[in-house]
Amino acid sequence: MKFASHVEEIDISGIRKSFEGAGPGAINLGLGQPDFDTPDHIKRAAIEAIEEGFTGYTMNLGTAELRGALSEKLRRENGLDYAPGEIMVTSGASEALFLAVAAVVEEGDEVLMGDPGFVSYAALARVAQGRPVSVPMDERFHLTADAVAERITPRTRALIVNSPNNPTGSVQTKEELQALAELAEDHDFALISDEVYEHFVYEGEHASPALYSDDVITINAVSKTYAMTGWRLGYLAARGEALENMLKVHQYVQACASSISQRAALAAVSGPQECVRDMKEEFRRRRDVLVSGLRSMGMDIAKPQGAFYAFPKVGDGDDVAARLIRGGVVTVPGSAFGSVAKDHIRISYAASMADIKTALGRMREIL
Ligand SMILES: Cc1ncc(COP(=O)(O)O)c(C=O)c1O
């Protein structure tokens, strides 16, 4: 068998690599998923779907009920006006990101992305035979329109924006997002906005770039918000031709998202939201304990404003992450997220308070 060279060239995720070598008693602060269980009312909706026999294909775009609820959610929470027909339900935000890149990128096209940034973006650009172009974030890990503008070429087809940000926990301001959206519109490329951490903002405010331009593909999921990473349920909102072209790819690679997960997501999005507020407050408490623990060790770290990651500067990130793993604490070196932040490590606080405190004790001894 021969393999496509542009696929062979893709590295296995640096995050997965960083788990290798962890001993049995290691505390895992490397994971990007909530440690909470999916709330009961959401589980019950899925069980009812199975018991009712709601187990066949749905419309390619997703059920009308769920898209109606998502249209309402986008209006209520994000101030965005998308009809149910402008929304597509996908298998996680991951599939939505793939569809967006696949729909706009041709061989040799350039995809701009913040560095450091989420590991999937560069790989997705490569799968589409495009070229990932990293845009260094500023010293607060914000993506500025000036930095993006410097890297726009006639081959630029997309810019991926991720606020709140993985791995840094930064949250872009409305003004910054507006400037990025205007760049996309002026230069005729897509702004792909990955908003999966929107509900976990502790300082500042989440805003959607789609408020400022119709050239935005808004991507989100129930994965992080409702502790549903294993349900594989995401969605995107886009206008006219953009949606149509992504639907063509979705139709043939996925057909539709899981019918059962769609019912669960309907309960999540249209049901009580206290569970989200509770998780957010717990994340905030953990963040505060983690950050003050790291600072008391002399680490250089600004308080992350969102998501559930701390991203301290530690010197040689690869070396520190390797020493921590030998001492029983799994983190991810900054080098997994690009080339700009090799002197950082990512520490997830989607772990219990007890684990965070034990890990801090171990880190103090190791470092
Ligand atoms: C920024 C970002 N986008 C997308 C995803 C993937 O989300 P999903 O599980 O819905 O595919 C993740 C998961 O870690 C993420 O951190």
Question: Mind explaining what this structure looks like?
Answer:
By secondary structure, the chain is α/β, with parallel strands linked by helices. It has 2 domains: 5-38 and 274-366, Aspartate Aminotransferase, domain 1 (Alpha-Beta Complex), CATH 3.90.1150.10; 40-270, 3-Layer(aba) Sandwich (Aspartate Aminotransferase, domain 2). It is built from 13 helices and 12 strands. It has helices at 5-8, 14-19, 40-51, 64-78, 92-104, 120-127, 145-149, 174-187, 240-253, 259-270, 274-296, 317-326, 353-366; strands spanning 27-28, 87-90, 110-115, 131-136, 156-162, 190-194, 216-221, 234-237, 309-310, 329-330, 332-333, 345-348. The strands form 3 sheets. The chain has a 7-stranded mixed sheet with strand order 2-8-7-6-5-3-4, with helices on both faces. The protein has a 3-stranded antiparallel sheet with strand order 9-12-11. It has a two-stranded parallel sheet with strand order 1-10. Helix 8 (174-187) links the parallel strand 5 (156-162) and strand 6 (190-194). Helix 3 (40-51) packs antiparallel against helix 10. The radius of gyration is 20 Å and the shape is globular. The mean pLDDT is 96. Pyridoxal-5'-phosphate (PLP) is lined by residues 32, 92-94, 118, 162, 166, 194, 196, 221, 223, 229, 234.
